[in-house]
Amino acid sequence: MPQPLSFVHPTPHSPWGTYLAQVDRVVPYLGHLARWVETLKRPKRALIVDIPIEMDDGRIEHFEGYRVQHNMSRGPGKGGVRYHPDVTLEEVMALAAWMSVKNAAVNLPYGGAKGGVRVDPKQLTHKELERMTRRYTSEIGLIIGPQQDIPAPDVNTNPQIMAWMMDTYSMNVGATATGVVTGKPIHLGGSLGRVKATGRGVFVTGREAARRLGMDLNGARVAVQGFGNVGSSAAELFGQAGSKLVAVQDHSGTIFNGDGLDIAALTTHVRQTGGVAGFGAAEVMATEDFWDVDCDILVPAALEGQITVARALRLKARIVLEGANGPTLPDADDTLAERGVLVVPDVICNAGGVTVSYFEWVQDFSSFFWTEDEINVRLDKIMIGALKRIWDTADHHGITLRTATFAVACERILMAREERGLYP
């Protein structure tokens, strides 16, 4: 029997353990390709780097960084970089693997990769953050590149950090390489529509799911966990469709208004204060009470592992739209399915961001840029087409959307692996 990776010991509720359980569930639907399934359970490459920087006061601090390339059979690695004090190698491995599945699910010509640095960026000054980013980029420069592995923003990273990464890589190779990262500032080769793309994908897949269930979005009650780019953008689009945002939870607290929160005012408040806490036109709720909110649609758009069995048993929502990566534990997934709650999984639901990242990458190579309307039309078409293929697979086999997404994506990945063969 194949041995587990020696450098990580997953538990059932860990990110990597969750991913492995998801792969095991899809094996019966892979046919002859199942012989290659171990390919999906082992990252192609995992790089751990030391990041020493000089702090503003002259101290030398060391941070630990990672870049994992999970599978690159379908193309160069693609995936974000997160800065967070709880980042681990195992988490980054799982996020890279989910990127492999996500890219294949929407049929982008990419493999899966992910990066991270264990740091609280809020504790760094602007200059310290820049020095750390540039040193991290130099350390992982061995394995990234426009045709090798293309980083992007993720938790606590943004267009400015992508600009520093692009500049550092460009200086090291001696030529401006705009295609080495996506999510850049517009004037440095970024794409219109990128900031709101992930949230837009959540809304588009949610709209299609609501149609399937016969749910009218006009008047539908929406609860959102996490109010960054993804959660706020999705909330804005649901609001435009006539839905009511009744509850929001983030790192600062939980707020509720049964008549609907003012999304524009809340977005401004969060931008000014850094969190939803203190927003005037809302009630304060206890953290755990968020999972009891009476809503039609729940959007977990924070971090992984949020929906446990206990919470799944309490949810009132009919639809769960996974804006975050890995927010639902496998046994909680089963509980939601048994209760008839429709889960649109992360690997299709939040794929809008990487889809527009692909558009950015293509535009950088051609030096020809599209309008935001063109971006949104192309994004909607890809998301709707991908979801239809997945839904047809789910209906054919009588399986959940998550297992169907993995079936479609893993078949594409393993077909590429089989047709390429093994070298040497």
Automatic annotation (TrEMBL):
Phylogenetic lineage: Bacteria, Pseudomonadati, Pseudomonadota, Betaproteobacteria, Burkholderiales
Highest taxon of source: Bacteria
Keywords: Oxidoreductase
The protein, known as: Glutamate dehydrogenase
Similarity remark: Belongs to the Glu/Leu/Phe/Val dehydrogenases family.
Pfam families according to UniProt: ELFV_dehydrog, ELFV_dehydrog_N
InterPro entries, alphabetized: Aminoacid_DH-like_N_sf (IPR046346), Glu/Leu/Phe/Val/Trp_DH (IPR006095), Glu/Leu/Phe/Val/Trp_DH_C (IPR006096), Glu/Leu/Phe/Val/Trp_DH_dimer (IPR006097), Glu/Leu/Phe/Val_DH_AS (IPR033524), Glu_DH (IPR014362), NAD(P)-bd_dom_sf (IPR036291), NAD_bind_Glu_DH (IPR033922)
PROSITE patterns tied to this protein: GLFV_DEHYDROGENASE
Glutamate/phenylalanine/leucine/valine/L-tryptophan dehydrogenase C-terminal domain boundaries: 191-421
PANTHER family, per database record: GLUTAMATE DEHYDROGENASE (PTHR11606), GLUTAMATE DEHYDROGENASE 1, MITOCHONDRIAL (PTHR11606:SF13)
